[in-house]
Specification:
Elements: E1 2-8, H1 19-33, E2 39-43, E3 47-52, H2 55-62, E4 68-77, H3 82-94, E5 100-107, H4 116-130, E6 135-136, E7 143-149, E8 154-165, E9 174-178, H5 184-194, E10 198-205, H6 212-229, E11 232-238, H7 240-249, H8 255-273, E12 276-280, H9 293-300, E13 307-308, H10 316-325, H11 329-332, H12 339-342, H13 354-361, H14 366-375, E14 378-382
Parallel strand pairs: 5-6, 5-7, 9-10, 9-12, 10-11, 12-13
Antiparallel strand pairs: 1-3, 1-4, 2-3, 4-8, 7-8, 11-14
Helix pairs in contact: 5-6, 7-8, 8-9, 8-14
Bound molecules: adenosine-5'-triphosphate (ATP) and magnesium ion.
Length: 394
Amino acid sequence: MEKVILIKYGELSTKKDNINFFLTKLKDNISYVLKDEDASIDYDLGRMFIHTSNIDRVLNKVKNIFGIHEINICYIIESISFSEVEEEVVNLLKGKEFSTFKVESKRSNKKINTTSVELSKNMGAYILKNIPNLKVDVNKPELLLNIEYRINNTLVYFEKVKGLGGYPVGTLGKGLLMLSGGIDSPVAGYMAIKRGVKIEAIYFESPPHTSQEAKNKVISLARKLAIYNQEINLHVINFTKIQEEIYKNIPHEYLITIMRRMMYRISAIIAGRRNCKILINGESIGQVASQTLTSMRAINEVVKLPVIRPLACFDKLDIITLAKQIDTYETSILPFEDCCTIFVPKHPVINPVREKCEEYEKLIPYEELIYTAIKNHEVLKIGPKEENAYEDLL
Ligand code: ATP
Ligand code: MG
């Protein structure tokens, strides 16, 4: 009897014709995080199995992979004979501490004439006969025993870990996340990764108005997201000149609107170069002046590619709860200035007008400035494991 990790797919099973594409990707993603482990993977349309000598460590790595609905520690009994299975199950249960249990059976081997309910009853009766002081409790059992009768073997499992759900990263192509050091954008990134989008990230810095600490904070956030994304290319754009030109030449109520139009333009160009099909950001309707509907429209119209805002309709408190869950919150609230906060006008326009944006933008040589910023941009490869290269930075 082999002890393995059993993976259930959840939403992936609803994919019909292209399920193999999703499963191959899931397998590749699992192989990637297990590349230093002694582990092998095989799968069919319903289940994936990881064979390994170190179940605990592998389980720990696998639980952060999207596309997995449930992970079970599973025993494969190489027999389809009921009596052999009963005997093995009782041996397995003998060492366990529990007083109530329930059996749930599945038959993928349709040659078995007995119904699943009867199979469960029979197994339950056998267990009661062979292990003393146990009771069946169908509502709240201490131990839920799952048995799957398959064509060549039988699976038994009773320990499960909930998976993260979602789609395997990369199945939906790539997106570019506008990552600031704030609370919202890392959460937005996490949600996009969960839907199978592999992300790259872009960060606008304005040294010396923004500090190295602010940048390190973004690097730390990228590293937290990289746990789910394998690794993240972080594009760092020096935004100082653009921001200063805007500040010097453009009426202050339009500072943020124009600044964000520039960020969008640059992001769209980087996205195009990196084959990212969408932009992702942490905007949320009504949160600040630049996130009124009119503002979003005035900003959005400088780019053609879709802009996905996973948090558009979330309350800030719900976003904070998510940020705590994914462990980005404590980093996000570190008090380092971001480029937006430094150049915030007293009275930002709430209903910016497109014609005015266009008129004001003529006051600065923005195409040239964008060209230079992109030409000089820096790319950092952030992995969850890059030898703690940045550990001392915060
Ligand atoms: P967050 O929204 O992440 O908490 P924030 O509140 O500082 O950060 P907003 O002013 O709400 O940012 O900006 C909305 C979105 O624009 C951010 O969620 C982020 O996606 C993007 N953004 C803002 N500033 C930057 C930046 N310096 N670099 C990259 N993206 C940025
Ligand atoms: Mg925000």
